[in-house]
């Protein structure tokens, strides 16, 4: 056609209507926007990691290491792990996705193993059945030793030590029994680095060889580790379907600052220190967390902001739950079977700082063996509703307590096997684990609609018996609809919803265990 540009000839006809240049420009802008939107979405990649068949240098196919996958990942990408055991950790240092386009690490059931098999070439037999090594770790400190263990024939050997609780002194080499270890210092720690010199010792059974032992050494400090500052921090990350086990420190060690981080369906099993721990100004959410056999179930410090939902904790050593400093923490839909040195401690810093705040809702905590307590201390706030505490003393020595629709009661072991009674450290004729509640003078207490089954109740220096509960209510100016009962077996409408917790929180394999069944009403 004459009189029209080549560009005009290539335009598609739109019926018989005239299309203005302005309309064509709008159409092209819209098309360009859709193209950019589609392109941006299509750039999101799936990065696969296979420790057996991967290659970090390959342009196609799976990578070999998690470290390289994290380096390569961009906003919107998902890192997929094989459901295998990885002898490495996942480190995030200043790694960011974007709002709505997080970087995701999906473990698909993978395990990050913090220990490696013992290298017998590093050990010398110094006496019959006694072995010594000075080369086990490149650096040793008192902090590491406090958390240290060996995995020996599938079991953690702590030698009665834990980082957040009373610990036994290390033995001398000649005092060791078969299956035990110790460390002997060669001198004081270096003042600049805190490193100490010395040697580890292992004792095997008479006539046995070290090569015959199934021993693993925790050589990694964490399973998942975060580090970052206010200027170079982690943000917009999702980490899911992942188990961390046998690091000498934390399963999930979250340092520095982070924002918009979500952990989903994660597990920390038999870690040297905390199952998960937030520090400094970390901010994250957890939905689905299992913590078994760690020194501490959860320990959050600093000015962190954390939220935990669907949590199951048992067999801790030092603390089950430990929240401190100026942070704000939330725990909902949780089950804690407590056997640690301390069950729950909440403590703030000096009064001029922000209070340490813990919100709990639908939480069941049952003391498994020996007396222990929930303690709320200085400059802290416990805001709890629909909480069940069984076999635990409640000590409010400072701060503020808000307690509603909750049950505080004794606990009795059910009829179970003798081995389970040994685990519980009770006999068949043992009395219930009784409960005492103490509210100190300066505590601000707000509460109502609670049910108490107590051995004793103390307000400042005054003790109350069950028949004096009305006087207690009058003096404290609260708890008008609460009751002190001798039998709480038929109490409804308060405490944790255990049926919901069994369905949504406790792993199915745990529910099948006779021991676990015996601990749940």
From TrEMBL:
Region (Disordered): 1-21
Regions of compositional bias (Polar residues) in chain numbering: 1-14
InterPro entries for this protein: Pectin_lyas_fold, Pectin_lyase_fold/virulence
Domain of life according to the entry: Bacteria
Signal peptide: none
Protein name, per record: DUF1565 domain-containing protein
Organism expressing this protein natively: Gimesia chilikensis
């Amino acid at each position: 056609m004459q009189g029209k540009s080549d560009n005009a000839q290539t335009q598609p006809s739109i019926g018989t209507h005239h299309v203005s240049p302005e309309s064509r420009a709008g159409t092209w802008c819209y098309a360009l926007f859709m193209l950019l939107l589609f392109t941006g979405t299509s750039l999101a990649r799936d990065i696969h990691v296979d420790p057996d068949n991967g290659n970090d240098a390959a342009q196609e196919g799976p990578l070999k290491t998690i470290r390289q996958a994290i380096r390569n990942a961009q906003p919107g990408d998902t890192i997929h792990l094989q459901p295998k055991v990885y002898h490495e950790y996942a480190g995030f240092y200043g790694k960011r996705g974007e709002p709505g386009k997080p970087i995701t690490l999906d473990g698909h059931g993978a395990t990050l193993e913090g220990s490696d098999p013992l290298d017998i070439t590093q050990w010398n037999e110094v006496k019959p059945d006694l072995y010594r090594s000075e080369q086990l770790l490149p650096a040793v400190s008192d902090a590491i030793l406090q958390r240290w263990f060996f995995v020996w024939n599938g079991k953690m050997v702590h030698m009665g030590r834990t980082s957040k609780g009373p610990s036994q002194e290390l033995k001398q080499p000649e005092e060791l029994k078969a299956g035990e270890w110790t460390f002997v210092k060669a001198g004081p720690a270096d003042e600049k680095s805190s490193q100490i010199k010395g040697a580890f010792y292992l004792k095997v059974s008479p006539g046995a060889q070290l090569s015959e032992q199934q021993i693993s050494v925790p050589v990694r400090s964490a399973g998942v580790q975060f580090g970052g500052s206010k200027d170079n921090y982690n943000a917009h990350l999702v980490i899911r379907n992942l188990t961390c086990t046998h690091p000498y420190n934390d399963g999930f060690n979250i340092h520095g600052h982070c924002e918009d981080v979500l952990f989903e369906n994660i597990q920390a099993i038999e870690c040297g220190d905390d199952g998960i721990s937030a520090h400094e100004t970390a901010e994250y959410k957890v939905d689905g967390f299992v913590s078994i056999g760690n020194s501490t179930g959860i320990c959050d410090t600093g000015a962190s902001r954390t939220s935990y939902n669907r949590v199951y904790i048992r067999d801790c050593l030092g603390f089950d739950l430990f929240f401190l400093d100026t942070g704000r923490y939330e725990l909902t839909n949780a089950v804690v079977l407590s056997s640690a040195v301390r069950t729950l401690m909440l403590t703030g810093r000096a009064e001029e700082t922000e209070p340490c705040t813990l919100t709990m809702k639908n939480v069941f905590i049952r003391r498994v063996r020996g007396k222990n307590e929930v303690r709320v201390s200085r400059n802290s706030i416990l805001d709890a509703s629909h909480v069940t505490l069984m076999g635990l003393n409640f000590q409010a020595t400072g701060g503020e307590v808000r307690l509603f629709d909750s049950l505080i009661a004794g606990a009795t072991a059910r009829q179970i096997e003798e081995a389970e009674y040994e685990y519980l450290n009770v006999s068949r004729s043992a009395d219930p684990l009784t409960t005492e509640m103490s509210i100190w003078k300066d505590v601000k207490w707000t509460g109502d609609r609670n049910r108490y089954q107590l051995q004793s109740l103390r307000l400042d220096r005054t003790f109350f018996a069950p028949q004096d509960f009305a006087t207690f209510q009058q003096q404290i100016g609260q708890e008008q609809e609460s009751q002190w009962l001798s039998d709480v077996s038929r109490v409804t409408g308060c405490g944790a919803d255990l049926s919901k917790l069994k369905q949504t929180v406790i792993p199915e394999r745990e529910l099948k265990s006779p021991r676990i069944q015996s601990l749940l009403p």
